Amino acid sequence: MPHRSARRPALIAVQLLALACAACGNNDQSAPMAAAPPTTVLVVKVEAAPVSNTVELPGRIEPVRTAEVRARVDGIVERRLYQEGTDVQAGAPLFLIDPRDYSALLQQAKASLSRAEAARSNAASIVSRFRPLVSRQAVSAQEFEAAETALRQAEANVSDARAEVTRAQLRFERSTVRAPIAGRVGRAQVTEGALVSASAATLMTQVNQLQPISAVFTQSNTAILDFEQQVRAGTLKVPDMAHVEVRLILANGQEFGEPGYLDFADLAVDPSTGTQTIRAQFPNASRTLLPGQFVRGRIVAGVHKTGMRVPERAVQIDASSASVALVAPDGTVVRRNITVGGQEAGEWVVLDGLQPGEQVIVDGWHKVRPGQKVTAQPAPASLPTAR
Predict the structure, then answer these.
(1) Cys staple from 349: which of 36, 77, 341, 367, with CB 3.0 to 4.6 Å?
(2) HEC per residue, the chain
(3) Exposed, middle or buried, 96 (CB in 10 Å: 0-12/13-18/19+)?
């Protein structure tokens, strides 16, 4: 009996603890769970307004004119007459090919011309003496005709000799290789002592005109067809090609200081790539742009009469599409694909997919999902806003 009396207080304590736990459980089940408040997002309201149709395309710098300087006579290069990588004027001497052979040929041709002219003078004097004698029959008509024939042959020989002098003179002059155009002359492809050949057209150097300079871009034929359709429909207003402004973005991300303007659009489509070529010309007094540079061109190709813009940070772009998150009138999140054009001042130009008055989520879209209730607040003025 004493043993049972010792267990009773412990049993009573266990029962009381169980009752307390049951009461706590009943209180937890009876208390309703508090609902999480809607996520707050920042939005901008889309408005329709005229916006620039800016298209960004990859491109490459090309000289307006380029000339490969090749040998036009055979011989040994004696001297290089220019500083590599400098600007030269048209006609500036670049190389000297050994001119001694051509100088001798020129002197020989001049001597042949002198002999031909002397023979012509002799033949002319014979004709002038025979002419009065023919009327007195002191000289036969046959002899007079022979003298006239000899004179005509002598005159032909003089013309032939003059042509040989001109040819020899050209060869002699071409032994001094000159720049065919003004521009920057490149690295020499031959050195002193090299044998160059006119028949092989040995390349000696190259001259590129760098002021002004051109940038060549390619655009898909599909995009150009869409562009033309928008122009015909009247939704896009474009100036004439000579007034289409182009801005260049260099490889380091900096913008080239001076704008250019389109001056050529190819009418043929490259069958291998399905693209068309577009060219713009730029002033390049500082020689910042060099042939072969890769650039990006921002072409202001007209104005959309009822365009829309959204901040860059509101647009999610993947490999195949662009999309934004919207706040529907009932306060839920809607995801929608859009078609974007160019970028301007930290904003995307939206070509299709949005309606004026819709609310685009600028900040917080990564924290919500479609169908979720949210609380929309206007984005502060410090953020880019839609126009």
Answers:
(1) 341
(2) CHHHHHHHHHHHHHHHHHHHHHHHHHHHHHCCCCCCCCEEEEEEECCCEEEEEEEEEEEEEEECCEEEEECCCCEEEEEECCCCCCEECCCCEEEEECCHHHHHHHHHHHHHHHHHHHHHHHHHHHHHHHHHHHHCCCCCHHHHHHHHHHHHHHHHHHHHHHHHHHHHHHHHHHCEEECCCCEEECCCCCCCCCEECCCCCCEEEEEECCCCEEEEEEEEHHHHHHHHHHHHHCCEECCCHHHCEEEEECCCCCECCCCEEEEEECCCCCCCCCEEEEEEEECCCCCCCCCCCEEEEEEEEEEEEEEEEEEHHHCEECCCCEEEEEECCCCEEEEEEEEEEEEECCEEEEEECCCCCCEEEEECHHHCCCCCEEEEEECCCCCCCCC
(3) middle
| Residue-level pLDDT at 386 | 45
Closest CA to 161 of 126, 128, 119, 127: 119
pLDDT reported for residue 86: 92
At residue 227, the pLDDT reads 77
Model pLDDT, residue 31: 46
